[in-house]
Structure to design on (137 residues):
């Protein structure tokens, strides 16, 4: 992630933030929804490790947390009180993905548009980390 090396330690006040590509959430078969969630989660783990390898302060790393709540499979990435949450909701033989994060339009259910969106999502989390916010829990 060469882009991470470019943004670490730089003031981003006047810089345009990356916008992860998203699309409206769509219903799909459960097996396809599950496969997409697992693929995004695996890629996210790899990229979080790469980001953390570039962050010099050992106590200032991104964390990746998995959870299952009801019929929703979730992974969340946390950094300096901010969070990006990617989930898949299952029900009635169908599944749909969702992504929620600071800096994204969260007014309607949206999902990541593809694997390239994961890198932009992590960069957005990293670059917005010094702006005022409500802490993620």
């Amino acid at each position: 992630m060469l882009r991470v090396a470019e943004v670490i330690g730089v003031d981003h006040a006047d810089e345009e933030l990356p916008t992860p590509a998203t699309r409206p959430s769509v219903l799909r078969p459960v097996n396809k929804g599950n496969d997409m969630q697992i693929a995004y989660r695996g890629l996210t783990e790899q990229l979080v490790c790469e980001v953390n390898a570039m962050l010099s302060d050992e106590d200032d790393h991104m964390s990746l947390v998995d959870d299952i709540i009801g019929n929703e499979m979730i992974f969340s990435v946390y950094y300096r009180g901010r969070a990006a949450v990617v989930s898949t909701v299952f029900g009635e033989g169908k599944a749909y993905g969702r992504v929620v994060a600071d800096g994204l339009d969260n007014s309607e259910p949206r999902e990541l548009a593809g694997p390239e969106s994961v890198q932009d999502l992590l960069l957005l989390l990293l670059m917005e980390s010094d702006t005022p916010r409500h802490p993620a829990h």
Q: What stands out?
A: Residues 131-137 have pLDDT under 50 and may be disordered. Strands lie at 22-24, 28-29, 63-69, 72-79, 82-91, 94-101, 110-112. The helical segments are 2-7, 30-54, 116-127. The radius of gyration is 15 Å.
